[in-house]
Amino acid sequence: MTTASRIGLLGGTFDPIHLGHLAAARAADEALGFDRLLFIPSNAPPHRPDSPRASGYHRLRMTALAVADAPGWAASDLELARGGASYTFDTLTALREREPASQFFFITGADAFAEIGSWRRYPDLLALAHFVVIARTGTSFDRIRGRLPELASRMVACDASSSSACRTAPFPSIFLINADTPDVSSTDVRRRAAAGISLAGLVPDAVAGYITEHRLYA
Ligand code: ATP
Ligand code: MG
Question: How many CA atoms lie within 13 A of 128 on its CB side?
């Protein structure tokens, strides 16, 4: 008997990708055990007033550099190639059509998930994948439960030690993972790059080199 592939997905602007993104992906992977994990830079994020600073081309290349050494992890151009506004509903629909036998896990930080009520096709999009919410400084799980009481019954607290319970949770669940990810943001990385401050310890070395080489946020 073959079992369905478990595929983690991390969407984001990745302007640029940083160590917080990688730690969030790792925490989800450790708790839930993915066969593959795709990092999907958005083309035009619907919830942002400004366009990304770096082009889609550069954001995808930085993402590919950041995951190059991790087996099973890859950058995906799905949203950039589709163009237009990048709605998670459309992305999950496309992936399910492409791989009907796979199980998808859409990973977000707690700050992003707190806004899920405003995403396109809420709440229908929650039926297309498991959602995996990673703790992030500034947004507590209590706040998420308080803002989204209608989803509380689907939420499953999950970490490396409760892994087996998480792996048998019904579809679709919302996993809450209380990992200690570094308090890094792309906004802060862009600010530092513009000020000529070192990005060491915030982004992978290959990404820092790429930003310098292409003068991305100068
Ligand atoms: P910006 O400052 O430009 O908003 P960001 O650092 O928030 O950038 P995004 O590309 O907006 O990065 O984030 C993509 C996803 O990764 C979101 O779901 C976000 O919540 C999550 N994420 C980003 N940084 C962290 C972190 N340090 N810990 C946990 N999750 C994170
Ligand atoms: Mg953000």
Answer: 21
CATH at residue 123 = 3.40.50.620
To test the pocket of ligand 1, the residue of 50, 63, 185 to mutate (highest count of ligand atoms within 8 Å of its CB) is 185
What is the whole-number distance in angstroms between the Cα of residue 18 and the centre of ligand 1? 9
Structure tokens at 73: 């992890």
According to the 3-state scheme, what is the secondary structure of 84-143? CECCHHHHHHHHHHHCCCCEEEEEEEHHHHCCHHHCCCCCHHHHCCEEEEECECCECHHH
Identify the band that residue 123 occupies on the pLDDT scale cut at 50, 70 and 90. Answer: very high
In this structure, the residues whose C-beta lies within 6 A of any atom of ligand 1 are 12-15, 20-21, 24, 108-109, 111-112, 134, 136, 181-182, 184-187
User: pLDDT tens across 95-122, in order?
Assistant: 999 999 999 999 999 999 999 999 999 9
Q: What is the largest CA-CA distance in the chain?
A: 56
* pLDDT (tens digit per residue) in 137-170: 999 999 999 999 999 999 999 866 666 778 889 9
pLDDT tens for 44-102 read: 888 888 899 999 999 999 999 999 999 999 999 999 999 999 999 999 999 999 999 99
Q: Is residue 208 part of a domain?
A: no
In a domain, 215, yes or no: no
| Centroid of ligand 1 to alpha carbon of 1 (angstroms) | 38
Looking at the 3D structure of the chain, how many domains does it have?
Answer: 1
Q: Is residue 210 part of a domain?
A: no
